[in-house]
């Protein structure tokens, strides 16, 4: 992303950049840990099991060595939020407290559709909340919340609201263009015109970790008006299987407790459990896990001990195994969901219940054994299904542990069990992973090191006076080296606002070198060695080139040219020997 063609002044871009802490910014989206000169974490742009995402706090650049995405704060926000550059600038400016001059309609594009929906959702949430607190039509909703033990403080904290029973309240209250309200899934179009999507429902705003409202969940007050729970339809900013209710409050906790419903999460938060999230009433997805693992190391799943609960565990077990995430299952008493349990049993009982967590695959094995009949056919079928989970485990010792657990649970000889398991030997997940070229290790070490030091501002560019851009032989490196070379005046320099000048094609390598760890106790000696290496390589290339020209001149009988080339050849040889 080059900023040279942006309608924003370069000075404004640079001000925003200098007042933005990239480490703090990225930490809003994923957990980072200090590692050497960088901060590292799991990449938010692709699924991975080991951290390959690095942020350099000095140069304010990030790079993922797994998927090669990299750049500065503008690149990060634009990529992770999937928003335009102008919108990114405005968002970062707001966070940094940098005022942006009011644009004219001709010089500045309007806000994107996504940003417009965010703004509409925010206004709608405030309207829903005022409805609940102020409108007489919401009396039944207020009574319902009171009966479920939801305090006024909690209502305010979650901005719980109420959608009026009428069909056209949203259009009347919002004063917003109808197409945008429809895009935001706040109204729908029917045979008799537009009508409110949420009607006579308690409303729960669904927020991202950055506190943006992406959609809503609604609980019906009229039990005869299905469905009981209704989520926003899919919009440009909302997909049900990609969001977790309460994650904005639970972010940063090492363990997340996952429940199914809004009231489950709200009641537990109210009781002091701030590490609880809800799946919006859906089964867990790969996107949910990708979101969770940015912030947490372990997940506790609360399931009912019924068939549906077991099926839910069976559904998500492969996801946790494949992502090598630790997950435990806590079973609640029959007929009690987390909301009811915390209200009846209290905080201490819930804490004690959390201590009874069982590893998810152990839970699946035990429940499968309990539900299967005593026939060998039933056992064989159940065990075969569990084998598919065990084969996904990359660690051999762990696979052995679960094979023994299956043997014990089903009463099958472990030796026979292992024999059957080996019959259909399948490589475990991770055993056939394609290796990723990291840290651009195909690049010459001397060229890579010098350019990294230049980018990271860890060397005096005047030290490069013995070499020239053409001494860098790798095209990718040479492209970036030219940012530091004044071709007109023929000298090296440090350009201002370099980040905004790097082209999209150079961005991946630039960001990789910006976060590259350079291990050296003597930085000056390292620079000198790299410069010497490039100098020697150039001389060797010149010697080889001169030798070829000399042989050609001798074959053609051009004695004058041959003598000149021979003189040049010996000068190069002498210079090379002096370098050592």
How would you characterize this protein structure?
The chain is an alpha+beta fold and 580 residues long. It folds into four domains: 10-96, Alpha-Beta Complex (DNA Primase, Chain A), CATH 3.90.580.10; 113-238, DNA primase, catalytic core, N-terminal domain (DNA primase DNAg catalytic core, N-terminal domain); 247-423, 3-Layer(aba) Sandwich (Dna Topoisomerase Vi A Subunit, Chain: A, domain 2), CATH 3.40.1360.10; 445-574, Orthogonal Bundle (DNAb Helicase, Chain A). It is built from 24 helices and 18 strands. The strands form five sheets. A five-stranded antiparallel β-sheet has the order 1-2-3-4-5, sandwiched between helices. Strands 13-12-14-15-16 form a five-stranded mixed β-sheet. Strand 3 and strand 4 (61-64) form a beta hairpin. It is globular, with a radius of gyration of 31 Å.
Tell me briefly what this model is.
The chain is of the alpha+beta class. It folds into 4 domains: 10-96, Alpha-Beta Complex (DNA Primase, Chain A), CATH 3.90.580; 113-238, Alpha-Beta Complex (DNA primase DNAg catalytic core, N-terminal domain), CATH 3.90.980.10; 247-423, Dna Topoisomerase Vi A Subunit, Chain: A, domain 2 (3-Layer(aba) Sandwich); 445-574, DNAb Helicase, Chain A, CATH 1.10.860.
Structure characteristics:
580 residues, alpha+beta, DNA Primase, Chain A, DNA primase DNAg catalytic core, N-terminal domain, Dna Topoisomerase Vi A Subunit, Chain: A, domain 2, 4 domains, five-stranded antiparallel sheet, five-stranded mixed sheet, 18 strands, 47% helix
């Amino acid at each position: 992303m080059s900023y040279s063609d942006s309608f924003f002044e370069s000075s404004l871009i640079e001000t925003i950049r200098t007042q933005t802490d990239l480490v703090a910014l990225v930490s809003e989206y994923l957990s980072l840990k200090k590692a050497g000169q960088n901060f590292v974490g799991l990449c938010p742009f692709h699924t991975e099991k080991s951290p390959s995402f690095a942020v350099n706090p000095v140069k304010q650049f990030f790079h993922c060595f797994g998927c090669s995405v990299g750049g500065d704060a503008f690149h990060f926000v634009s990529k992770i939020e999937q928003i335009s550059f102008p919108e990114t600038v405005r968002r970062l400016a707001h966070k940094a407290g940098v005022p942006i001059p009011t644009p004219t309609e001709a010089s500045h594009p309007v806000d994107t559709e996504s940003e417009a929906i965010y703004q509409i959702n925010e206004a709608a949430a405030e309207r829903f909340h005022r409805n609940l607190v102020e409108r007489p039509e919401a009396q039944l909703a207020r009574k319902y919340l009171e009966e479920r033990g939801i305090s006024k403080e909690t209502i305010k904290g979650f901005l719980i609201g109420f959608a009026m029973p009428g069909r056209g309240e949203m259009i009347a209250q919002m004063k917003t263009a109808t197409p945008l309200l429809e895009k935001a899934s706040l109204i729908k179009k029917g045979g008799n015109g537009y009508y409110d999507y949420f009607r006579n429902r308690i409303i729960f705003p669904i927020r991202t970790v950055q506190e943006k409202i992406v959609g809503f969940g609604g609980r019906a007050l009229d039990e005869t008006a299905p469905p009981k729970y209704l989520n926003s339809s899919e919009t440009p900013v909302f997909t049900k299987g990609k969001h977790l209710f309460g994650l904005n409050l639970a972010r940063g906790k090492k363990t997340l407790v996952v429940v199914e419903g809004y009231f489950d999460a709200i009641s537990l938060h109210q009781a002091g459990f701030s590490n609880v999230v809800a799946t919006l009433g859906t089964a867990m997805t790969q996107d949910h896990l990708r979101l969770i693992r940015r912030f947490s190391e372990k997940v506790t799943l609360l399931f009912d001990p019924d068939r549906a609960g077991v099926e839910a565990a069976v559904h998500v077990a492969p996801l946790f195994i494949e992502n090598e995430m630790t997950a435990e299952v806590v079973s609640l008493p029959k007929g009690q969901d987390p909301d009811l349990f915390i209200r009846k049993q209290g905080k201490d009982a819930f804490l004690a219940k959390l201590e009874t967590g069982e590893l998810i695959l152990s839970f699946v094995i035990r429940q499968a054994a309990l539900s299967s009949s005593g026939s060998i056919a039933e056992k064989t079928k159940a065990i075969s299904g569990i084998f598919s989970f065990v084969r996904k485990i990359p660690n051999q010792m762990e696979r052995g542990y679960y094979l023994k657990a299956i043997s014990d649970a089903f009463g099958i000889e472990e030796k026979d069990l292992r024999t059957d398991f080996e019959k259909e030997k399948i490589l475990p997940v991770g055993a056939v992973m394609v290796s990723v070229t990291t840290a651009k290790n195909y690049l010459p070490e001397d060229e890579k090191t010098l350019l990294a030091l230049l980018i990271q501002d860890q060397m005096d560019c005047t030290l490069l006076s013995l070499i020239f851009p053409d001494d860098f032989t790798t095209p990718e490196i040479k492209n970036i080296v030219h940012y530091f070379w004044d071709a007109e005046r023929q000298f090296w320099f440090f350009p201002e606002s370099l980040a905004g000048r790097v082209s999209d094609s150079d961005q991946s390598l630039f960001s990789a070198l910006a976060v590259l760890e350079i291990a050296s106790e003597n930085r000056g000696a390292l620079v000198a060695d790299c410069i010497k290496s490039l100098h020697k390589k150039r001389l060797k290339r010149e010697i080889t080139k001169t030798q070829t020209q000399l042989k050609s001149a001798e074959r053609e009988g051009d004695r004058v040219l041959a003598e000149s080339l021979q003189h040049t050849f010996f000068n190069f040889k002498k210079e090379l020997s002096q370098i050592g």
